[in-house]
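Handout, section 3.2

Students often ask what a structure token actually looks like in practice. Rather than define it abstractly, here is a full record for Glucose-6-phosphate dehydrogenase assembly protein OpcA. The first block is the sequence as you would receive it.
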Amino acid sequence: MTSFMLSDTTASKISAQLTHLRHQMGSPAVGMVLTLVVVCDEGEQYDAVRAATEAAREHPSRILVVIGRDPAEPNRLDAELRVGESTPGEVILLRLYGELTEHADSVVSPLLLTDTPVVVWWPRHSPDVPAKDSVGVLAQRRIVDARPAAEPVKAIAGRARSYVPGDTDLAWTRLTPWRSLLAAAFDQPVGKVKKGVVEAAAGHPSAPLLAAWLGERLGAPVKVADSPGPGLTRVTLSTAAGDVTITRSDARLATLSRPGQPDRQVALARRPTSELIAEELRRLDPDEVYEAAIRRVARSHKG
């Protein structure tokens, strides 16, 4: 990985330097399939860049990391360029000072790859309406995460009010293995579900989303109950024949129980952020199932 620093620079100078580095290394910017914009602060950038870079192994990308610094400083743009030798992809750290902190789109827009999708990810602090954010408006896919919010469930409910096709939340992405396992649990008929319970650590934002998805899919009331955690710990779906349960005992395995069948151990690992981002980059079309889930959470939260 070759790194190059530019101080008090411009987007055009950054583009020129990228082209120079690529030619110098003999690896032109072909094969990159999208631009991933990461909007974060200095304290978050290390973990965010690491996750984005790992995700880019599956989806070669130009990664633009937008870091807002001191708005009281004179206007300045500093950049750090990292270009890989063995794999396609680029990482550009953009540190914005002064009024540029409020106009990140003017820096980002000239650096987007042409004729490829744009994805924006806010690892922690996200705008109330991502699609109307100056950077978010540039993207086809906008990724937020309710988990770090002060009130995660309230944040999920708020997503419904501001939802625009292309929005998604990592609190939803974390549910993919649970949803797959629950769907597989009904491959063999077990009868109509009468009610359900999703147990999770208090305030865990994925819990009401999973309950909403189950309620929508099964046409039965599914409530959320607190557990010691960590995260999601148990789903119980009650049928006339007995309960279907999934109980996660550790960070890797869960136990699936169905009426009239022996319990079995199933893989249900907690996934790193890089895998969540990689999953979201595989699907850039609107997620109607997520939309239905957040709207159901919003109705429940309001009630």
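Discussion prompt for tutorial groups: The chain has two domains: 2-169, 176-267. How would you have guessed this from the sequence alone?
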